[in-house]
Design goal:
The chain is mostly helical and 224 residues long. 77% of the residues lie in helices and 0% in strands.
Length: 224
């Protein structure tokens, strides 16, 4: 006996079907928003295209905005932690900014969907405000990640004054990093619009090298 139960295969099939249905709804919603604009897309439109009931839609996502904002914050935060703590060779502000930026775009199960979703978010003030709320709500968690990285590099600080100083520095790092992410997203959107107006190949989304440019600007700022 292998300890498996008769229901295991059916449970696995049911989970795969749910994942496939969720993915289909997400892709349809994002496609409609890219075609018509987020504000002009309704839950009814999405459900009609997917041939699902609104009850099914809300069972999966809870709200219209959730289908566009992507994975739950807890899942995204785990990806940020993994990328940031492993990247000890990059200056801490740029490293954290890059980890957050990558999570928003590529640290998701479907990177193509994530990029298309981000196009929708950047084109909607309502969704962009919700995304900024998520980042602000996780500032404390990100500050703790910065402290973990400091401790891994130089060891824990037992001095109370040193602990307070590190905590303040970590908060500043997070504030700067999130500022970098917001500016990088805004710059990317502006470059995309400019390329569209000139009818040139945009080379994908995000614009290649956008975070490298942010790193160069940080170097200039801190070196001035």
């Amino acid at each position: 006996m292998d300890g498996s139960t008769p229901n295991a295969p059916s449970e696995g099939l049911r989970a795969r079907k749910r994942a496939a249905a969720r993915s289909a709804i997400e892709k349809t919603a994002v496609r409609l928003a890219l075609e018509h604009g987020y504000e002009h897309v309704t839950v009814e439109m999405i459900c009609t295209e997917c041939m699902v009931s609104q009850r099914t839609f809300f069972n999966y996502f809870g709200s219209k905005e959730s289908v566009f904002l992507g994975p739950a914050p807890a899942a995204a935060a785990e990806v940020v932690a993994g990328g940031f703590l492993a990247d000890t060779g990059t200056p801490v502000v740029l490293s954290l900014a890059t980890a957050v930026f990558s999570t928003l775009l590529e640290g998701q199960p479907d990177p193509v969907l994530a990029r298309d979703r981000m196009k929708v978010v950047m084109g909607s003030p309502e969704l962009l405000a919700k995304q900024n709320e998520w980042m602000a709500a996780h500032e404390k968690q990100m500050a703790e990640l910065v402290l973990q990285r400091y401790a891994a590099v130089s060891g824990p600080d037992a001095d109370p004054a040193g602990i307070r100083g590190r905590a303040a520095e970590a908060q500043l790092v997070v504030g700067l990093a999130l500022g970098v992410v917001r500016v990088a997203l805004q710059q990317n959107q502006a470059l995309q619009q400019n390329q569209a107006e000139q009818q040139v190949d945009d080379g994908g989304w995000p614009v290649p090298g956008i975070m490298e440019r942010s790193g160069e600007l940080l170097g200039k700022i801190f070196g001035s």
